[in-house]
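Note to self: user wants both folds in one dump. Writing first protein now.
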Amino acid sequence: MEHPLHILEHYWGFTTFRPLQEDIINTVISGEDTFALLPTGGGKSLCFQIPALTKNGICIVISPLIALMKDQVQALKDKGIKAMSVTSGISYDELDTLLDNCIYGNYKFLYLSPERLQQELVQDRIRQMNVNLIAVDEAHCISQWGSDFRPAYKNIAILRQLQPTVNVVALTASARPEVIADIIKELDFINPKIFRQSFFRSNLAYMVFHENDKHYRLESILKKYEKSSIVYVRNRKLTIELRDFLKSKKISATNYHGGLSNAEKETNMTSWLNDQKQVMVATNAFGMGIDKPDVKTVVHFSLPESIESYFQEAGRVGRNGEKAFAVILKNNSDKDVVKNQFLSVLPSVDLVKQVYRKLCTYFQISYGEGEYQTFDFDFNTFCKTYNFNSILCYNALLILDRNSIISLSRQFQNKVTVQFITSNNTLFRYLDTNQGIDIIVKAILRIYGGVFDNITKIDVSKVAEKAGITEDKIVNTLQKLEQDDIIALSLAKTDAQITFIEPREDDKTINRIASIIEQQNTLKQHQVSAILDYVENDSICKSEQLLAYFGEKDTKPCGICSVCIRPKQVKKSQPKVSLKNQIIQLLENGDQSSRSILENTNCDETELKTVLKLLLEHQIITITPTNTYKLSHL
């Protein structure tokens, strides 16, 4: 058996492990059931990938995130390690072939969603595999008290029956004590070895600032620390607005959200990773699997929905060990905004029942039928048809998806089929007289070999990526090719696809998950309350507050957060008499705004307001029509 350190160096180029990694790896190799709690950036994936590479056989990895599965599989392939993921949208025959490859093809990793474990074919093939390890990533999803609870995760225990002699390693970046206990129980661990790395990060300064003008404070922070940064906002529109604002202030910025095309995501991500752009303005769709070590600041321009998500997003700074800043900017309206965004949009059990019934009616599913039927789904039309609030309806669909009542494929793209209906010679004569189209046609021909012989489903984003052209341009070109009788084209706009996983039973279907819906709504209320308490509590060290939330005791003040540094600022500040003189000296050189005075004096905002008010009352200074201050005698 090859030594873990040799594998680490050979495939990943590192000569030492991060804290706890080696202990976890050795425990997993020895065949023990293992629980590993490592904060974001702690290197969780290596804790199952290296043990799997030391032994013969294949490692089964359960993960809820398709994007993360694909990223990890691609990263392993790039290292010459055979790995595959089995995600949605794969036909039965293709699934059959892929699983056979896992048995006979010397694959080392098989990534599965928990929903896939319900399929009899998958279970049958796993029985036949030479499995050397079972890894459960994002293990908090198995607990009803964990963020992102997925009932399908409770099916993972079946792996213990299919492969009873194989040990399990469960990994997560955030779990409170009750969640850890749930994970160990649900996975049927025997004498588990538990590893918990402290969430304390000595180089990370947690800052919470109350700001009436968040834009100005954000600009100040990013100009003070002109290094790689992430700014998190609450919606897609705000990523664009804030990106443009930063550009107007000569700060290079790009943006990222779930609605961008794959090509746009890749372009924006690459420009940020390569330091061509200082700032990534993003929704919480950004960050999973990103390991950029030199991020200096993460700023939450909008309040996060929970401490779990905040801790994970804040943990993306300072992975190189240098001092870094996790900043939350808040104002008086944020409390109501957070409650409206995350609490007022929680669907009740009755609403979920109503959405489910209407969904069945919309697709004409008869009672007792519908199992594994798939339909193209225009979400906006559905909402208008039944007069549903779009946000509440969408969240109800997510509940149905998360509880395996339906599968919601959120592709939001054109569904395109193409067949070339002309000869090769005619096609190439046409391309000679239509400049600019040839690169698109050649991209399609290279990706889809049978497009002359059969009606072929085209992935527009893949063609756009291959040709280096926008998706809109691809669609426009296809429409021109159809008009010119070069291709037969079917172009359907679809928001998503819906697959019914269970037969229709109306209220009976939802009654089975009613307690889960109510419990998850209660959990969300607790989470929102916790994040509001965190941003409002200015008496306890910010780091200590976060550590206490995750069950760590006997902690000490960090010394660098916004709470800890406040006494130092008070000590440094000048007496009011001295500050008064500083302001007068500044104003002798001309009018000054309050911001300018703050930047040029050694004080905090509260103290400055007090002294300015005093100077105004004594008519030493006055306010100009442009809201600046000037000396009264000038």
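First done. Writing the second protein, which came from a different request thread.
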Amino acid sequence: MSWKRLFAARILERGYDYYCDDAVENMEIAADSIRADVIGTEEYEVEITLRNGEAVDMYCSCPYAEDGNRCKHMAAVLYQWSEEGQEAEESGGAEEDDSPKTISVEELVREADIDVVRSYLVSLLKEDEKLLLRFRGMVKKGTTKEDIKRYVRQIDRITDRYLGRDGFISYYEADGFLSELDEILDADVRRMVDDGDYMSAFALMNHMFTVLGDVAMDDSDGGTGTLAGEIEQYWREILSKADMDVKQQMFRWFTEHLDGSVIDYLEEYIEQVIMEEFQEKEFREPKLQFIKDMIEKSSLQSDSWSGSYHTGKWATRYLGMIEKQKNSGILIEEFCRKHWRNSLVRRYYIEFCTKKKEYAHALEALDESMALDKEYRGLVAEYSNQKKEIFLLQGNQEAYRKQLWKLVLEDDPGKLHIYRELKKQYPPGEWKEKREEVFANLPGHVRPDELYKEEKLYDRLLELVTGSPGLNMLQQYEDVLKKDYPGELLQKYKEEVDKMAMHTGDRSKYRQLVALLCRMKKITGGSKVAEEIAAEWRGKYRNRRAMMDELGRL
């Protein structure tokens, strides 16, 4: 479809998401125009002018389009229009249009005098540095240092324009900012990579990546990560094609820029490239030394959560590299003992021992870990589960069963999958007695609702549901209980919706209340109860006009 050429790739992608989410409403299509509303953060009005079935002018009420940009809302409307046009074509098509066709761009240029084209092109390129650089790249292969400086200035000007006086890019403008950077990536970086001008492409992307990490922006849609991911793919493409000299320069840049100069969550992209690329033997020792330096740097802050996490992260990466060496067991043992306080290191060691079937060492490390990390319930549960699995691997049935009981009652209580695993250890007759032992000894903070459902102990489940505040448990188990206990569920519903109705609210709250009454009507006897509640509210809250309107829909 020709209209797609009018949009940047990223804007098209966002527009398609809106179209797929049915965000386009109230569309009106005429011979020469399209009008529609698009539901985004707010409701935006879109108008598109058509000529001979082609979009020639567009308007949207969103802030991004106010600056003359083509936005995702316009794209969403055009996707919807294209779909409806396709449906019309499949159902018989439209009458043939006898109006004269607009001459295409290609035909216009082909028919123009060559001197006119050259003169116009010169004036155009003098006015637009972006087009000038792009044109030069097409005509003359290679990018000069001065060209890179100009590209950098372009990126900085784009950033300054969107940042404005307050130094912040709002949610409404984030798409535009990222799309302009994406355009440079798709057009200029792509050309440089295709031409084999790898270091120019690398330099331009690196500046863009650094700007992306430094800029203050409301990126609720996650566009920063998307663009960073595209840059990462270009890095990897260059590394797959470049010679060793280029790779050495890239390795230096990556390792030098994990110094805090790039924001934390973007550092992950650099780290992934360092660890997954540079597999040649020339990089083995430099990579190991770099990882050692990162471990030492992180260890200086080991008292903080962040320092401990980064120490463990780099330590496990180091271990992963040396594990590939022959006879690495002693090195791994020594290294792990040196950093034994770090839970990530211990977890690596436990998995290493388990893979080598050194179960005694793994169990010893697990016991130490449960003592060292006793304050962290999630870790304790993980260690306890690992012990259970090792006992199973050993064929130690008695220890395995004992560990299951410890998990169910202490280390990871109330988890259905562990409960089921324990249940399989006993014949049905014996299990009935054992399950009561479980219920009697569960910690007070653990709700047994899932376990009651598993055992079909619906009377006990009902007691939990009716005794819990709010509607969450009621709606969670409604389908299970409504056959045997319709009256009790309806009574619980009545209590909760009456509480909700006591406080005034807006139309959306009243709509929610009516939806709950409709839900009640699906339970045996619910229609009568729902109508009684509605009648009571009509009298009690008759001055709430919005509520009366919504009750009218019941």
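Dump finished. Worth passing along: The chain has 28 helices and four strands.
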